Description:
By secondary structure, the chain is mainly alpha-helical. The protein has helices spanning 3-7, 18-32, 37-44, 48-56, 66-76, 80-83, 87-91. α2 packs across α4.
Amino acid sequence: MRRTDAQMLPLPLDADDPVRALGRRVRTLRVSLFLTQEGLARCTGLSRDTIARLESGTPTLRRPRMRTVTALAMGLGVAPEQLLPDPCRLWGEGGPDLHA
Length: 100
């Protein structure tokens, strides 16, 4: 599947938990690109464990940093806003600007 195809996939939303919603979006895109967690880790410079924790919605996972979201978006070939449509829900008002 081409990356442009992955950009057009409907991504699941989770109204209650922005970290869990982000994890679901990452997994949906990763699988659509036929990438393993290890493959995505190589593309992003993140660890496979970080990707696994994020995708599983591990309750002890802290909110991911902006650079993590940006690296995931780049590795998946999408804009950060597609992974995280409402940054304020994750980081609060005055949180990181995905356009900066």
